[in-house]
Amino acid sequence: MYLRQVYDPHLAQYAYVIGCQKTGEAIVIDPLRDVAQYHAIAEAEGLRLSAVAETHIHADFVSGAREFAADGKMAVFLSAEGGPDWQSEWARDLPNTHLLRDGDEFHIGNIKLQAVHTPGHTPEHLCYLVTDEGGGADEPIALVSGDFLFVGDVGRPDLLEQAAGIAGTQEAGASQLYQSLKKLRDMPEHLQILPAHGAGSACGKSLGAVPVSTLGYEKKFNHALKLALNGTEESFVKFILEGQPEPPLYFANMKRVNKLGPAILGEAPAPPRVALTEVSERLTEPGFVVLDARSDRKAFISGHLQGSLYAPAKGDFSGLAGSYLMPEETVVLVVDSEDQVSGLTTQLRRIGFDHIAGWLSANELAKAGWGTLRDVPTVTFSELHELIQGEPTMRILDVRRAGEFAAGHLRGAVNIAHTRLRARSTELAKEAPLVVHCQSGNRAAAAVAWLQREGRRVYFVDDSFKNVPIALLA
C-alpha cells in the first residue's frame, strides 16, 4: 500500500493519494482542481489514478473531483447521505459515479475503503476507513477524516449558517456532530487520523500544525473530542459554537460551485503581462479589478491604482482576496516580480476566481507618477484621539476577529471581521468617515482598500495594537 499526503500551505489543506502497489491502481481523496500534481505523484510511484473521492461538498476550495471526472475514465465516489439538498448535482448522471451510504465498501486494487457517515460539519459528510487487505490486514490502518476530525480539533458545524447563510443549521449541526463523534469510541486506537486541514484553516478554531495523529492520541488530548465522548450534548454544543473564526466571504460561493459543478480548467493558460496604459483605461469599467499583491504594505498605502484591492502575496493572499473579490470580476494582478504570477494565479483559481486577465509589475507602477496613483491617509494610535476630536462624526472600525475584539478594544469601536466586511458594510453609515485598524496592519490595509474602492472616506491606522494608549481602551 502507498499513502501520500499532499499539502497546500495557502489553504492549509490536505489531499491523499492512496495506491495498491500490487495492481498499480490509486485513488485521490479531496483533491484541489489543478489535478496534474496528483497524476505526477502517482506516476512517480508507478501508479495510475483510477478513482477520485470526496468526503463532503467543500466550502473552502474548488474541488478537483469534476476535473478528474471530465475524461470519463475515472470512477467518482461521492456521498449519497444527507438528503437531496446535499448531493453533488454535477455528478448525478455520470456513468462512473458511485454514490455511497454509511457502511458501503469499495476497493482500489487490494485496498478496501469503507464509507462512514459522519454528519455535523455538513449533513452529507463521509469519512473513509482504509484497510490494506493486500498486505494481509483485516483491520483498518487509517481514517481519512475530512472535516470531521482534525489533529487537536473537530470540524465546525456552523459554516452552513455563518458562511452560506442557511439559517437555523448550526445548532442542529452541532448536535449531529456530537452524535457522530461517538462513532469513534469503538474504532481501533491505532487508527491513523488523516484530516483534510491543518493549522491556519478557518474550518476549525484550534487545528494543530502536526499533519497526522492517531485516534488514541486524539481521545487523550483533543479537548473537543473528549467533550463529545465524555460530556453532555449541551456542553459540547455550547463549546463547539463558541469562538469559531469568521470565515472568508468566498466560502459561500464555494458551496454552490462544488454542488453544481465547477468549470473545467484543463490546460489553463498563464495570464499575460499587460501595459499600464491598458489597465488605466479600464479602471472605471464595471467588474474590472486591480488586485495589488505587493508585499510592501506601505508602498501600497502610499501609491496604488484607483480602486485597487490589496492582498499581499506573502500574507494570507487567498483569504484576503477571497473576502473582497467577486467570482465574476475580471482581475489584473500587481506583483513584485514575474515569478509570483503563476503561484498567485493558481491560488486564485483554487478558490474560484478564474477571470485573471493579466499582470503588472510593481516597478512599472512605481514609474507611473503621482498623477496616476492614489493613497490612503494614515495615522498611528497615538494620533487617533486628536484626529477624532477634529472629526466628530468619525467612526472607528476594528476589523479583527470577534475573539480579539472581546479581549480588548478601543472605546466606541465597531467590530466587523475583515473577512465579513463586504457582507456587512451596510451596518456602517455611508456618510461617516472611518478610521480602520487591526492588530498589526495587514488586515486593515485590505479593508481600507475595499472601502476606498466603494467611495468611503477612510484613514488607515499604520500601527500595532500593542501601542494603543490606555486612555483609548474601553
Automatic annotation (TrEMBL):
Keywords: Hydrolase, Metal-binding
Rhodanese domain mapped to chain residues: 284-368, 390-471
Metal-binding among keywords: yes
Pfam families found in the cross-reference section: Lactamase_B (PF00753), Rhodanese (PF00581)
SUPFAM superfamilies named among the record's database cross-references: Metallo-hydrolase/oxidoreductase, Rhodanese/Cell cycle control phosphatase
Any one GO biological process: glutathione metabolic process
CDD domains, per database record: POD-like_MBL-fold (cd07724), RHOD (cd00158)
Superkingdom in the source lineage: Bacteria
GO MF annotation terms: hydrolase activity; metal ion binding; sulfur dioxygenase activity
Protein name: Hydroxyacylglutathione hydrolase
Organism annotation: Roseimicrobium gellanilyticum
